[in-house]
Amino acid sequence: MSAFDLSATSALALLRADERTSGIPDAPGLMSARPDLAELVKLHALTAGHSFKQSYSDGQNRFSRLPAALILCDQAAIGFRDHSFCANLASFRSDQHVAEVPVISSHILHGLPAFLRQEIGEKALLRANRAAGFDLELTEGRNCFIPHAAVIGFVNAAARAAGEPNLGLLIAPMMDAANYGSFGRYLLGADTLGQSINRAIAALCYHSTDDRMSVAIVGDEARYSYVFALSGHAGYDMIAGAAAGVLLSVLRAYLPFDWRPLRVELDINRPRQSGQFEDLFQCPVIFNAPAVTVVVERHHLSAAPRRASWPIVTIEDVARDRPGGAPRNLLNVVMEQIRAQVLTGSVSIDRAARPMGTSVRTLQRELNRAGSDFRSLANAARLQRATELLRHMNGSITRVSAEMGYSSPANFARAFQKATGRTPSEFRSNI
To answer: Which of 33, 193, 371, 406 is spaced 20 to 30 A from 362 at the CA atom?
Structure first.
């Protein structure tokens, strides 16, 4: 790990956390907004043979020479508004030959940790969290993106701990798109069911990657379908019923209490106890389908919502919650894993690699190919979180240190000062 990777990433993470950098129109503006941090960025950029301002103004050739750790901090993070600069970012990223890992918003597991604790026990929840790679209860209410594999791992680990092979069916009734943050509020705020489904399809890129959603009209029927990115993978059988529960939650937000679907289709093999699926969904269930599909009468698409009103949410609001959509390349996916872990107070490359379906060695190699490393990314994420806590918490620095997972306030202070040039107390006094 070079000094540049750690220091430049950490500096830009601080710039991202600093509200005073929002709305900066260009790179020179960035240089003047936070001279203490900008000087650090410029210093390390110069070690690559050019200044940050030159990289911005000279176009893609010079820009592409910046290390990937610096590229990670994009226009959404530090407030750039120049579209050619953004295009260079996109072009640079498209050249990075790193594996894509499908991810989905952690909102989909809303309420599930509490359900497991109350209905099955603490042991099942601990095993499920271990499989997911972090404590989902501590990230609840936040829009973290987690690998699809982590979702499968979480549910299957809980099922094994509980000795409940039909856990996916048990959780299906509690699946509700209304809990999916701005994405859920956007689609459920539509004037008709048909518009709601179309909104879900249009905004899916802000909720997950590699999933597919569609609606098809066949005669007098409307087929609302969803394909999970890891459909057909080991453990997916536990997810299909829950996915149908989400689609049904959208339909039930618009249709009468006594409404029942014409049928439900699931993209899994017929289980031994298939009758339990029909008992749950209260309609015929077809297995070995190409997608999870709920079939309704076509005329229901014009139904108005049962709830009198929802807060007005536009697709731009959804986009602001996740600039650029759900993360796609490896670096951004790993950063999401790290941010989720930081919220729980402990960061581990092993717990990041496991739910991504890869080994620690492979993950390290892929990050090195992309010009970064796990420690640099973790330090940047922890530093960003530390500045947020110092700025917005009234508690002591000792409490901030504990929240960040440091063994002592002194260790936290040393790490913070090494990265920023200021102690936590000095940083707080200058806010």
So the answer is: 406
Task: Please calculate the CA angle 297-299-284 and round it to the nearest 5 degrees.
Answer: 10
Strands of 285-286's sheet in order across? 212-218, 221-227, 292-297, 263-265, 285-286
| CB-based contact 285:264 (threshold 8 Å) | yes
Listed as own residue / partner, the contacts of 278-287 with beta carbons closer than 8 Å and 24 or more positions apart are 280/169, 280/172, 280/173, 280/241, 281/244, 281/248
Reported confidence tier of residue 1, pLDDT bands at 50, 70, 90: very low
CA distance 341 to 272: 38
Three-class SS of residue 214? strand
Answer whether 272's CB lies under 8 Å from 302's CB. Answer: no
Going by pLDDT thresholds of 50, 70 and 90, the confidence category of residue 218 is very high
Q: Where are the beta strands (DSSP E) in 167-211?
A: none
Question: Measured between alpha carbons, how far is residue 376 from residues 64, 295, 368, 387, 416 in Å?
Answer: 20, 49, 11, 17, 14
What is the full DSSP assignment across 42-85?
HHHHHTTTS-HHHHHHS-HHHHTTS-HHHHTS-HHHHT---HHH
Quick one: which of 426, 382, 384 has its CA closest to 405?
382
Six-digit token string for 10: 């950490």
Q: Are strands 285-286 and 263-265 parallel, antiparallel or unpaired?
A: parallel
Instruction: Give whichever of 41-55, 323-337, 415-429 has the largest mean pLDDT.
Output: 415-429
Residue pair 106/75 in contact (Cβ under 8 Å)? The answer is no
pLDDT at 372 (0 to 100): 85
